[in-house]
Amino acid sequence: MTSTVFSKDGTTIAYDRRGEGPAMVLVDGALCGRAQGPMPELAEELASHFTVYNYDRRGRGESGDADSYAVDREIEDLAAVIEAAGGSAYVYGSSSGAALALRAAAAGVAIEKLVAFEPPFVVDDSRKPVPATWVEDLESRGPADAVKYFMTKVIGLPGPFVAMLRLMPAWKHLKAMAPTLPYDARVVGANVAGRPLDAAQWAGIESPVLTVYGGKSPAWMKTAVRAVADAVPGAECQEVPGQNHMIKTGAIAPVVTEFLR
To answer: Could you tell me if 200 and 80 are in contact, meaning their C-beta atoms sit under 8 angstroms apart?
Structure first.
């Protein structure tokens, strides 16, 4: 059943809750929502150990949006869900959702422990850099072109693959999510510039943090995730063998449960 909470700026944030145990909030990455992507299945898997809160980030699914965007508003959204969960919670963030969760932890949001799976940072020259103008490029495009740009210029998927994807039923969902791609770009920020991370951005994190990457993920991603662990005070880092950025629920759920319990 869908529940809602008001963020600090009055935006309605929709979430669902399942399971029993300590509160845990899931934070999605780009083009994913409460009903589409990896989190619904993960929520079901984790519900035997936690009370899991799975929410639609602003602009997605049943959540509202505002006339203008700021990363601080998304941090406030996560804080509002955590408040609804009892005032503090464990958090699992995936991809740009991991980047958002790290920002929230640094801002003092009541995160008891955080698992950050593959925040999509680029910290060296081992891959083609993300265009410096990617925020503006995404904002200036219509939904279909924005998804194509994101998948080819940012993720690095081949054009023919994206052309085939446009013929699949999932394309309609991706286009619906496209207006939020600039939000993810702003959340990730300068951490995709191909330079070493500025550790100062996470100096205020006091919660225990585990960064995680898949053993089959590209070298640049592994390097970035290790770099986050080095930059966040006291953080740990773990590899999940045989997995990549599209990590399977059965592979990540035990990692999350072991660290958080």
So the answer is: no
